[in-house]
Amino acid sequence: MEGTVGSRYAFIYRRLITFFPTIFITITIIFFLVEIVPGDVAEVLAGPGASMLEVETLRKMLGLDLPAHERYFRFLSRLITGDLGKSLVTPLPVSKLILDSLPVTLTLAFSSMTWALLIGLPAGIISALKRNTKFDLLVSFGALMGISIPGFWLGLILILVFCVQLRLLPAAGFVNPLIDPINGFKYIILPSFTLGLILSAYIARITRSSLIEVMLQDYILTARAKGLSERIVIYRHALKNALIPVVTVVGFQFGGLLGGSIIVETIFSMAGMGKLLYTSILNRDYPVIEGVAITMVAIYIFLNMFVDLIYMYLDPRVRYG
Amino acid sequence: MVDFPIISPIWDFLKRLRKNPKGFLGFIILIIFVIMGLFADLIAPYDPNEIVPGDRLEPPSLRHLFGTDQYGRDIYSRVIHGARISIYVGLLSSIIALALGTTMGLLAGYYRKYIDETISRVVDILLAFPALLLAILIATILGPNLFNICISVGIVYTPQFARIVRAGVLSVREKEFVHAAIVAGDRDLTIMFSEILPNTIAPLIVQTSITFALAILTEAALSFLGLGIPPPTPAWGSMLYEARGYMEIAPWWTIAPGVAIFLAVLGFNMFGDGMRDILDPRLRIE
Prior knowledge:
Distance between the termini of chain A: 15 Å
Order of helices and strands of chain B: HHHHHHHHHHHHH
Strand content of chain A: under 5%
Radius of gyration of chain B: 22 Å
Largest interface: A-B, 46 and 40 residues
Order of helices and strands of chain A: HHHHHHHHHHHH
Helix content of chain A: over 70%
Oligomer: heterodimer
Number of strands of chain B: 0
Structural class of chain B: mainly alpha
Helix content of chain B: over 70%
Strand content of chain B: under 5%
Shape of chain A: globular
Shape of chain B: elongated
Number of strands of chain A: 0
Largest sheet of chain B: none
Structural class of chain A: mainly alpha
């Protein structure tokens, strides 16, 4: 027993220790990736009519005349103090742009996840319990369609139906639901449904297969043999174990929502991090691209670590040698 | 049945596929898409890039089954030609991911120690990026064209292959037949490819099919954002990128390319599911 607990702490410790090098390496990769993006910022910023001298002055002003490694160290030392630099296009610091857009993306992620769980979990559970019935077939096929539908197209079709044809919901923008719940809900419903529906397909699939597998285990047979009602067998014994892999998928997909936000926020013109990344790529606004990419990857890595730790907590059978 | 050594396993496989409705339907969809792509020039009634100013934004009719776009180009013909591009992207990206991932997985699993450590860290780092973000970053650097998009999509889906192969190698690395091959003096490469790799074929085939679907989706997303295959190439994603501004007056333009992406991806996913059922009895839940 002592040994198990010990190795568990050792695992947590190791997991936390690898967190920082991974972040550091990804930051370095992002810096140099963005560094080699073609296109001269100074030239873009100076405009088409600018003289060579103007471009050169601008380049010096932005610190772009320094060699790459020097800029990298400057970048790192600023980063440690939380300074992500200044946007080249707007006069705002990158950290402000990110902090302003973060609530939008988080609202989108949480409401998408709500949809996904609301649809995916019951669908997966019921279809596992009613295996090989019409309902099961329907869910299986629906889930297959869900993982195949392109998110951006689903978003466009929803806009086409609910905004252009029926004129029920706004097609673009964002209102914080904590400040104005009614309007906030109206604005978030379509974008979050777009991401949530696709996610629910993954959740339904994994829930179904996981629950089916658990229901075949001996201890379920034992529970039934003890004369427990089917309800208790399912809720107390089966679901508890069946949901472990679901937690992992939910955790990982939460990070995947960050990628999805790039598309959905662009389609629905929501001023979130995904949209920020997209516009900064179009504008070649390097500090913003770096800042957003680093923030997204950091959140993603953190979530993955968190999921690993939760997984270990939920499933003591898992050994981390 | 006469037994042909090469045809027999394929025939056998097709017979098993017939019994799996999902896989079989997926297979049929794929065949249709491949035919569409291969014979696009014969099937499409118009040149996909032919601009006809008099036919701008016409709704679907018998003359133009899916209508026309703002340049008067026939959307049906463009969708047919789009199949060729999607198949190209799916194929090339999957080959890149398969080749890179298999090599990494084989090296890591076979040599272990610091080689495994290094490769596993690289895989971890790649997996630390949300897929679409990584694809966008690489595609932006390489510049938007068909080949570069395939490279970026291929890199994004490499880690999954590396993990599958590495796990497969580790599970057979200490088996007698591998030791026998080592003792017999076979070269490392021979052992890796003819003794070890065949044991990971089943999950690799399934993963390739899934990657095909993911590659088509990712390329379409990139092109839709205007960061992928540039217009006027009739890629499905690029068509939606152009159609976005005309949703109110020409909704048909948005529908056809999206349905095409959806069906193609659905086909690969169904085929992948079917393959998993057939090839991996452990995952088959009866």
